[in-house]
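@channel sequence for tomorrow's demo:
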Amino acid sequence: MGDWLLNLPIPWMAVVIFAATYLIAACVYLLVGRLAVLDRRARAFKAFSPGMLPVLGTIFALLVAFVAVQVWNDFDKAKLLPQRPAHYEPLMSSPRPFPMSRERNFVRS
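structure tokens (generated this afternoon):
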């Protein structure tokens, strides 16, 4: 389903992703705006302290930082993988643990 997005050129992919993000943010904004109009929910929105926003921003920044570090480490490992000598990999020509006819029986059942 998402193959069409992955096959787009980079500028168009950026446009689609930013448009989708903007659309979701606008929907959330409109939903919160409509819910804030109701009297009993307006009190609940006012009860949320603005002092919590920097704390939430810090937690989000930590989450983004840890995800970025993990992606960076995975990228470094993937970049080093082709540089490893071939004798580290298991040999494909090793003898089979059981005869080929037994493999065919597994596939048929």
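heads up for whoever presents: DSSP finds five helices and no strands in the chain.
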